[in-house]
Amino acid sequence: MKKSSGKSSGKWRWVKWLFILPLLLFLAVQLYFFLQIWWWVDHNPSMTSFMREQQAALQEKNPKANIQQAWVPYNRISNNLKRAIIASEDANFSEHEGVDWEALQKAYEKNNKKKKVVAGGSTITQQLAKNLFLSGSRSYLRKGQELIITYMLETLMDKERIFEIYLNVVEFGTGTFGAEAAARHYYGVSAANLSAMQAAKLAVMLPNPRYFDKHRDSNYLARRTGVILRRMGSADLP
């Protein structure tokens, strides 16, 4: 009886560790994300997960290929671009706490009606969370991790810092990341000197930048740019 009891006890110890080890691993990963975000409160990211992924893809075709990105501080990025991106991507950026649940609901209803994904509903903070740490794959697990990172960003950083990092790391085209590289790539000017029209067009490209990099004269791009130009005046900057 004692021998059987010992075997049973050992078995339950293994079962217990099967639950504990994944939990400890999960917590260790979250701690890594938290500490990294804490570091970025006053240090600039050099490379994001999404940048590394895109650079690797480019180097498969050309081993010497590199992404284009140059960090510029918040006050050296045109307010035109800031207003355009908020108007296009996240009108409630200055008000929400990381997730715009109303926008997510509207996006779900729109996608359900169209029977395909035509709207995302992700906030600027959510997009930054994905770009900093995650892959471009879509799954409920990845979305859950994105939400956790989103709330970490909103807890540790103010809105201006979140937006500053976003403006410097978001993808604007094939191998082109950040406002400065985008302004140089498309218009031959600095991010500080983007006009309202230029800024609106860049903002409209964001949901599908590599496509619009190759189709800069599309009718949709022109129409949507006009819409964003009209909305920019009411965009609240952090």
Automatic annotation (TrEMBL):
InterPro entries: Glyco_trans_51, Lysozyme-like_dom_sf, PBP_transglycosylase, Pep_trsgly. It is found in: Cell inner membrane. It is a single-pass membrane protein. Its EC number is 2.4.99.28. Its main location: membrane. Residues 65-232 form the Glycosyl transferase family domain. Pfam families: Transgly. The keyword Acetylation does not apply. It catalyses: [GlcNAc-(1->4)-Mur2Ac(oyl-L-Ala-gamma-D-Glu-L-Lys-D-Ala-D-Ala)](n)-di-trans,octa-cis-undecaprenyl diphosphate + beta-D-GlcNAc-(1->4)-Mur2Ac(oyl-L-Ala-gamma-D-Glu-L-Lys-D-Ala-D-Ala)-di-trans,octa-cis-undecaprenyl diphosphate = [GlcNAc-(1->4)-Mur2Ac(oyl-L-Ala-gamma-D-Glu-L-Lys-D-Ala-D-Ala)](n+1)-di-trans,octa-cis-undecaprenyl diphosphate + di-trans,octa-cis-undecaprenyl diphosphate + H(+). Keywords: Cell inner membrane, Cell membrane, Cell shape, Cell wall biogenesis/degradation, Glycosyltransferase, Membrane, Peptidoglycan synthesis, Transferase, Transmembrane, Transmembrane helix. The keyword Transferase applies. Pathway: Cell wall biogenesis; peptidoglycan biosynthesis. Peptidoglycan polymerase that catalyzes glycan chain elongation from lipid-linked precursors. Belongs to the glycosyltransferase 51 family. This is Biosynthetic peptidoglycan transglycosylase.
